[in-house]
């Protein structure tokens, strides 16, 4: 098999990153059939392009605004497991809010006929997913469409969210830090999430392990405003140890 070109290697590295949430030098070198030094140079190039952030022994994804489709395509098995673990947290009646995250979208796609819900969201993609579920009355809060993230934000979105009350708010985040709380790549995203959380009895954060121990530009929710964190990990996993004193974990 001929060696991969540099552009092919970098594309494969991005595929690994989307699937696993991080890149380890030795593992990637074995997969690509090249030296760790070659992978290191490729990761340096990707970091200069703003696509990854180098860390000791490899790289993680750079936290930048992404469209819904790109986010939905990444780490699918983790999202599916989070949705499975969180499904029984959805009340059978009443009102819930769901943000524009693809992880919350995976949960919406698990709704069945036992639910009679008002579901409010700032995501057209999650609205469409909810509209196909019997017993779910889906409402889009509207506002200004943020083209980088495919979510509705701004004053109108916040005003509409503030006019409603929710039993639970299901949200994700670009990053989670045990001290900084949840955070996002844009300030506008945090504003809508804060309003939705303020008007919900409980806020449930759904996030995969690749987001743990990181922080993005704009702080969204402090842990005292979060009722529960749901990840794909076993709650006893050591990666969750820094979070156990600040939030309940499932």
TrEMBL record:
Q: Which GO terms describe its molecular function?
A: DNA binding; DNA-binding transcription factor activity
Could you tell me which residue ranges the HTH deoR-type domain spans? 6-61
Keyword Ribonucleoprotein present in the record's keywords: the answer is no
Pfam families from the xrefs? DeoRC, HTH_DeoR
Give the protein name, as stated in the record.
Answer: DeoR family transcriptional regulator
User: Which keywords does this Swiss-Prot/TrEMBL entry list?
Assistant: DNA-binding, Transcription, Transcription regulation
Source species, please? Agromyces kandeliae
Q: Which domain of life is it from?
A: Bacteria
InterPro entries, A to Z: Carb_Metab_HTH_regulators, DeoR-like_C, DeoR_HTH, NagB/RpiA_transferase-like, Tscrpt_reg_HTH_DeoR_CS, WH-like_DNA-bd_sf, WH_DNA-bd_sf
- Please give the PANTHER family that the UniProt record associates with this protein: AGA OPERON TRANSCRIPTIONAL REPRESSOR-RELATED, HTH-TYPE TRANSCRIPTIONAL REGULATOR SRLR-RELATED
